Fold this sequence. Notes:
The chain is an alpha+beta fold and about 350 residues long. The protein has 2 domains: about 1-90; about 105-335, 2-Layer Sandwich (BirA Bifunctional Protein, domain 2). It has 11 helices and 9 strands. The chain has helices spanning about 1-20, 20-35, 40-45, 55-90, 105-120, 135-140, 170-180, 220-235, 280-290, 310-320, 330-335, and strands at about 125, 130-135, 165, 185-195, 205-215, 240-250, 250-260, 270-280, 300-310. The strands form 2 sheets. A 7-stranded mixed beta sheet has the order 1-4-5-9-8-7-6, sandwiched between helices. Strand 7 (about 250-260) and strand 8 form a beta hairpin. The radius of gyration is 35 Å and the shape is elongated.
Amino acid sequence: MKEEIAQIQSDALSAIESASDGQTLDQTRITFLGKKGRLTTASAGMKDLSKEEKPVVGQLLNTARSAIMDALETKGRILQDEDDRASLEGLDITLPGQPLHPGNLHPLTQLKDRAIGILRRLGFTLAEGPEIETEFHCFDALNTPPEHPARNEKDTFYFDSGKLLRTHTSTVQIRTMEAQSPPVRVIAPGSCYRRDEVDKTHLPAFNQLEGLYVDNDVQVGDLKGTLEFFYRAMFGEDTEVRFRPHFFPFTEPSFEIDARLQLKGQDPEWIEVAGCGMVDPAVFEEICKVRGDDLYHPDKVTGYAFGMGLDRLAMIKWGIKDIRLLIENDARFLSQFS
């Protein structure tokens, strides 16, 4: 067996030396060291040796295996060096390299991160909720009557199960109040879906950011101060903000928010940027029913809520004329925001 091991080692080293490429070298490794390789097969004969022979033969096997593995590694480096040199033949190393264009965050991501950062300074925390929702969380809990147009299949994407794609992130406000006792101060950025015709200002899938603040003595002045601070931080300290009376089922009183902004190449004008209002007592009453307590009873707490379209804010901030540009992934367009 000693002679057999010596012969296997000699044959292996000779085959390794003559290997001309990586594939041949790998086949040589399998031939001698694989599961059915010659040295592996020889090692199986150890069981037939006497107690005195086993240590000697075992040492010879280890020596042969080490020698073969070292030779394989050395030959592998040599062949790799040869391949590297061959790949560089004819290459003019004086030619200028191809520039790498650095990537950047999508403008919507930039704006969302900016908005979250501003509101976090005011004590708001992030909240999340599912995009596939129930009618209760999307409409009933938000005091939306059964005949409201938003509940029509022409406006909202329904599943056969009766669930739907949320039409606003106000659903997260409901889920937050279900799970958390007051005070509550959260913001919920996320995707929403409506059956809108695609044009320069509408998409069936868009992005919203909504906020909710509920505590013992929240007033309209708190809402006004929060949103004035937000829009001045977003668009500049000189930004003018005004509140116009409006109607939403889930807030009372309700307001539309306009900001006086100057788009590129245009005179300053008032632009609608968000909707807001004081949380309707009916919403709090519905939350109390679900929770089975009176922590959100309208006699104990008040609150405000607001919502804004992030796509619209991005269009305003950078003077984007067509919302479809935000989803087409045209590198020429996106490179402007690097």
